[in-house]
Specification:
This protein has 11 helices and 11 strands. The strands form 2 sheets. A 6-stranded antiparallel β-sheet has the order 1-2-9-4-7-10. The longest helix is centred in the last third of the chain and has 20 residues. The protein is globular.
Length: 276
């Protein structure tokens, strides 16, 4: 398996955390993709198709074109890992997709959508064809960066309350309360919720829950040993039962099942867990 990551230059790096590319990672298994609180754009360089087997909203498989946008999900979804023969993707920062893609992220929350539906058939087709034809992986990254920078220049930026709120919530979702942040912005609580949900794609309380879960997930990956009571204390959960309930809601797994399934993390992409 080959996995490459590329950090775009300024000003795109304010809205995109990284580009990634994977090849030779196809596997006859299903994978569970955990919610991350942000948007991903994925281009299949091998087949002009992306299939999602199951989501929190739809139990049946759905097929999309080879250039697809994965919205902010409130739970895990399932894919077929045979699609990882050759893929390139854009991992947006929270709220970043709104600026680059030009569409409120709330419009495709808990859903996948063809990039053509957002940019038009011609632009989406040209992007994928040029990426497929590029002679090297570096040229793929640079061309993708060029396209997104051009789009960025023609878009309005984030509402000023979004960076402020994200800073207040902190990377672990355990900072200030939503009501406190709304009060400090000077907006009404309802107006703050509307702006945040539209641009980030999730209501702020749910977004913070996912950040807290991601903190636990990161600790589990780092340590390899999971002390659920200690994790609950460190990551802002009321108790171990609260943490267990969040795992079931956000991943479809109990903590015991999660611990079983992350034992072999080889050849897995970020936030992907193999399904036995």
């Amino acid at each position: 398996m080959l996995y490459l990551s590329y950090t775009p230059r300024a000003p795109l790096n304010e809205f995109v955390e990284r580009f990634w590319l994977v090849s030779g990672a196809e596997s006859p298994r299903k994978e569970r993709i955990l919610p991350s609180g942000t948007v991903e754009c994925v281009i299949n360089l091998h087949d002009d198709r992306v299939q999602i087997d199951r989501t929190v909203q739809c139990a049946r498989a759905r097929s999309f074109s080879g250039a697809v946008v994965s919205g902010t999900y409130s739970g895990a979804f399932i894919i077929d890992a045979m699609q990882h023969a050759a893929m390139i993707g854009v991992h947006f920062r929270p709220g970043g997709a709104f600026v680059v893609l030009g569409v409120p992220s709330a419009e495709f929350a808990n859903a996948h959508v063809d990039l053509a539906a957002l940019w038009g058939d011609a632009a989406a087709r040209e992007l994928r064809e040029r990426l497929c034809a590029a002679a090297t992986h570096r040229r793929r990254f640079l061309y993708l960066e060029e396209v997104l920078v051009r789009r960025l220049r023609s878009r309005p930026g984030l509402h000023s309350v979004i960076p402020f709120a994200l800073e207040c919530f902190r990377p672990t979702g355990s900072g200030a309360s939503v009501r406190d942040v709304a009060r400090r912005t000077g907006l009404s609580y309802r107006r703050f919720l509307t702006i945040f949900t539209a641009e980030v794609g999730l209501a702020p309380k749910l977004f913070c829950r996912i950040l807290r879960f991601q903190h636990v997930h990161a600790l589990a990956q780092q340590t390899g040993h999971i002390d659920w009571a200690q994790f609950a204390l460190e990551c802002g959960f009321f108790d171990q039962s609260h943490l267990a309930n969040e795992f079931r809601t956000l991943t479809g797994l109990t903590p015991t099942e999660y611990q079983r399934d992350i034992q072999d993390q080889r050849n897995l992409l970020c936030n992907h867990i193999a399904i036995p």
